Amino acid sequence: MTDTFALLSGERFTVVYRLACSEAEAWERAAAICREQTAELPLDLLPSDEIWDQIVGRIESLSPLPDGCFEAKISYAVEVAGTELPQLLNMVFGKVSLIPGVRVERLELSPGLLKPFKGPRFGRAGLRAYLEAPHRPLLAATLKPMGLPASELAQLAFQFALGGIDIIQDATTLADQRLAPFEERVERCTEAVARANQVTGGRSIYMPNVTATAYEVMERALLAREVGAGGLLICPGITGFDVMRLLAGNDDINLPIMAHPAFLGSFVANPVQGISPYALFGQIMRLAGADATSYPDWGDCSSFDRETCQSIAEGCGAAMGGLRTSFPAPEAEINRDRVPELYETYGREMIVVLGGSLYSRGPNLAENACYFREILA
Amino acid sequence: MTDTFALLSGERFTVVYRLACSEAEAWERAAAICREQTAELPLDLLPSDEIWDQIVGRIESLSPLPDGCFEAKISYAVEVAGTELPQLLNMVFGKVSLIPGVRVERLELSPGLLKPFKGPRFGRAGLRAYLEAPHRPLLAATLKPMGLPASELAQLAFQFALGGIDIIQDATTLADQRLAPFEERVERCTEAVARANQVTGGRSIYMPNVTATAYEVMERALLAREVGAGGLLICPGITGFDVMRLLAGNDDINLPIMAHPAFLGSFVANPVQGISPYALFGQIMRLAGADATSYPDWGDCSSFDRETCQSIAEGCGAAMGGLRTSFPAPEAEINRDRVPELYETYGREMIVVLGGSLYSRGPNLAENACYFREILA
């Protein structure tokens, strides 16, 4: 046993949980988290004191929150998480996800734990340099509806690039269906955006959706790179976060990544269960290599309020070892009146993913795009 | 346009959603699902009537439920989902996961949609044949705590196999940490179980946890196969469901798969948001190739009640095209008194994953295992 524990460095990382229960229950629940995420056995069944000391999570603090919940800071030995993202996710919210009334609020990751993670390849500064847009907020548009053939999606892409949209991304519903097969779509849309760039002298990029069957993700990303696409869209909730991390880390691909929240809504639907938007869309997406992370902006029938959106932006920008920051990418309907509050919330460090109004404002999509770029500038 | 739509077969599949809202809102919300999962544009912005007719989801029925919620049956053209699991998951609960008050109750998948899916490789009958246990309920034990070296985990495995446990699985906290590295653990535990089988004449198997970085999953599974492990444990919520499907479909691996619910708790934490346990642990796990799916049994601090557990068993066994059935694998503390209600709930078609009492009943683990096998028989 001694040999095993000699491997432990003593370095720990912390997960901050919100517990929805009474104070008495809070201590019990925190203890259950410490146990269930690690040894999965009660104290009296542990085969050695060292496992209690070194392996089982440790309650660093437990304090009441203004809303009646409790905040538990629980630390774990970094070796418990190992060096892989899947096991880190499992440590943070694996079995605990099945305990009622527990939400991960934020991660406080130590240098040794962060070391194997490269995070976003471009990050905010890198993406700005890549898009030759050093200061202004960025704009994204979504190619839709599903049902259009690749040639018509490419026409949309051309119009949006002509109008100065920085990032033109597939709708996540566009996969590799026969209606607009992936390869044809990537070729046509990439070509269309390049053609528009020649007209404008701009640096718009097309981001195909590479969400797919596990190995296909990498193949499609390599194809996209080969064809000349400027970035990648992926839904890590569907592919697994680690697949996105592999994409981001691949030198042959070397493209910026936009993460989409599809399939992840349940994690953030409940203030007392799941993972906070700050931790999920900010911290975890960055660990997994997203250069930008999109989510529904507040307003309309969004489940997020303004404060939540702001917290996502904070998670995208907060210090996290040497990891690059990422862009918050709110999907929003904007107009002149809304622009000030967007700036107030995000500053210039945002990618606004334009909603249906990009399509509805008038028949000329390039003009619509121009208009939104102008009011945001 | 006509060419594109000539590709559509007219075959449709249905997703049954539970909507938590008033009747007036229910129609609106159902329409939002139809739209947001497909065209992502309102009717008046669709470029053609065919997209409305063929691509946008269709409300087949909307009816009140006894609890005040509404049940919406929404159908989609099979071509919209394509032939890949990631896109099917996206169709079922992609953007919709971000709409408040929507839960997927069940999937009604058509033959054409199911065609590309092989489902569980073994299924109930196959796993029973493989374990040479044609009739009785099966028993599983979990190797823990993390912190034990591989040699001591192997000793536990030996004891459990000696006591007649059918499936001896890693705790999901065991990944590839230095405390008990994957390769050494698989070799030692596999050998220990084989040695016990020689003593008993039984057919116990060891299932290492292959949850890992995307490509590593397959490598570890192949290593496990090579070493002679009898099955695989995986957390598809962490790796992505499609990674499990690839494992199940791989002829070189050819091992039964136990799916663990780690990281998936948020999907099933809320009766009016997420995915029903029936659909998630039953239907989706089968689509993704699980031969057995574990979950916390009712009682104690479980978030599941008995009815929910029963519904999971139903999802594991319900007709789904030609897909094999899977085993419900409740993680339970059992004793003589509980056995009748387990039979009432699951019949013999269950794998009972024994909890801490396997460790706590007495110092001789093989005897403990024997005892539980006896009271369950």
Describe the 3D structure:
2 copies of one chain form a homodimer. Chain A has an 8-stranded parallel beta sheet. A 5-stranded mixed beta sheet of chain A has the order 2-3-1-4-10. The longest helix of chain A has 19 residues, at 182-200. Chain A starts with a helix and ends with a helix. The first copy, chain A, is elongated. Chain A contains 17 helices and 13 strands. Chain A is α/β, with parallel strands linked by helices.
DSSP summary: helix tally of chain A: 17
Biggest sheet features of chain A: 8 strands, parallel
The CA-CA distance between the termini of chain A, in Å, is: 63 Å
Oligomer: homodimer
Structural class from helices and strands of chain A? alpha/beta
From the alpha carbons, calculate the radius of gyration of chain A and give it in angstroms. 22 Å
The largest beta-sheet of chain A arranges its strands as: 7-6-5-13-12-11-9-8
Please state roughly what percent of the residues of chain A sit in beta strands, choosing from under 5%, 5-15%, 15-25%, 25-35%, 35-45% or over 45%: 15-25%
Could you say which overall geometry of chain A the principal axes of the C-alpha atoms support? elongated
Q: Would you report the number of β strands of chain A?
A: 13
Spell the H/E element sequence of chain A. HEHHEEHHEHHEHEHEHEHHEEHEHEHEHH
| Largest interface, Cβ cutoff 8 Å | A-B, 93 and 93 residues
What are the segments of chain A in which pLDDT stays under 50 over at least 5 consecutive residues?
none
Relative helix content of chain A: 40-55%
**Average pLDDT reading of chain A:** 95
